[in-house]
Design goal:
Helix content: 25-40%
Number of domains: 2
Radius of gyration: 20 Å
Structural class: alpha/beta
Strand content: 25-35%
Number of strands: 15
Order of helices and strands: EEEHEEEEHHEHEHEHEHEHEHEHE
CATH topology of the largest domain: Quinone Oxidoreductase, Chain A, domain 1
Length: 321
């Protein structure tokens, strides 16, 4: 099969397109014929060697994918050959390939109404958004959530999930195209975070009270603004960060507000099972609608790794095999 492999940590050009042996399923695994692969920023950090959990070299990157079941290992029940599925596996489990052998616990049914490209956009983005909103922020119907950076894959997932759970949603984006995307997916208010007064608009929308929940995609830039904006007893969930920042912690005191970090790998098996039960249902009933912003051929994984870190996020970047 064809696959992308990394033989040395480094820049995007270390992603090499090559022939490798087809994987074989072990007990408790299925073999997925991969049709689409989801690209996540975390995979660029792993590729560069700048991540807390690094695989042994050489490795095939990626954990998010969608395709069909090509083989079933011993002990596996509940799946059939040819069945459409999405994969949400650890980030270095080999999804940048035409075939992927993966533990059955990381494989989920993909509704017929959802394209393979959209299926590849589910794993990390939607699981991250769900965990941020409901397992970390403990968000409730009727509360207001501000998705600070809402036009990317996790941002759009957060907007859709919050709306489906009866929350008021404010989202920000940095381009007209991104703002239109956020609005089209149900945000009640859309802000332009390139404008100097956009946080004043957030305050006006909440009548000065602030949002109860903020899902933050770039904490090194925005965290201190979030602390000024958050409601009394509010929760800021740090989903993304690219460097150090300085905050005035006094802003948390009078409000009893909190900053909660999250990493998807810390979720327990039970928590992940709950997450994906909700996502499978949401995909089936149409309340969740993943957005594919750009598609690249598998051989152009290096270009996709550059694109995923560029400003002006718009949906999910996927590789097509």
């Amino acid at each position: 099969m064809k696959a992308i492999r990394v033989h040395a940590f480094g820049e995007a050009d270390v992603l090499t397109f090559e022939d490798v042996d087809d994987p074989r399923v072990s007990e408790g695994q299925v073999l997925v014929k991969v049709e689409a692969v989801g690209i996540n920023p975390v995979e660029t950090y792993v590729r560069a060697g700048a991540y807390a959990l690094l695989p042994e070299l050489p490795f095939i990157p990626g954990g998010d994918a969608a395709g069909t079941i090509a083989d079933i290992g011993a002990g596996v029940t509940g799946f059939s050959l040819g069945q459409r599925v999405y994969v949400a596996a650890p980030v270095s489990s080999g999804s940048y390939a035409q075939l992927m052998a993966v533990d059955v616990a990381s494989v989920f049914p993909l509704h017929d109404s959802v394209s393979f490209g959209q299926g590849a956009a589910v794993g990390v983005p939607y699981a991250t958004a769900y965990r941020a909103l409901f397992q970390k922020a403990e968000a409730k119907a009727g509360e207001t959530v501000f998705v600070h950076g809402a036009s990317g894959a996790v941002g759009i997932a957060s907007v859709q999930l919050a709306k489906a759970h009866g929350m008021r949603v404010v989202g920000s984006a940095g381009t007209e195209r991104g703002k239109a995307l956020v609005e089209s997916h149900g945000a009640d208010c859309v802000l332009d975070h390139t404008q100097p007064d956009y946080m004043d608009e957030l305050a006006a929308f909440t009548r000065g009270a602030g949002p109860e929940v903020i899902v933050e995609m770039l904490a090194n830039v925005n965290l201190n603004r979030d602390l000024a904006a958050i409601a009394r007893f509010g929760r800021v969930i740090v989903v993304g960060n690219r460097g150090p920042t300085e905050i005035d912690a006094r802003q948390t005191m009078g409000k009893d507000s909190s900053i909660r970090g999250m990493a998807l790998w810390n979720a327990s098996e039970a928590e992940l099972a709950s997450v994906h039960a909700a996502l499978v249902a949401g995909l089936a009933n149409g309340s969740l609608n993943p957005v594919v912003g750009r598609e690249f051929p598998l051989a152009e994984a290096a270009a996709a790794h550059v694109a995923v870190l560029e400003p002006g996020a718009y949906g999910k970047i996927v590789l097509m095999t």
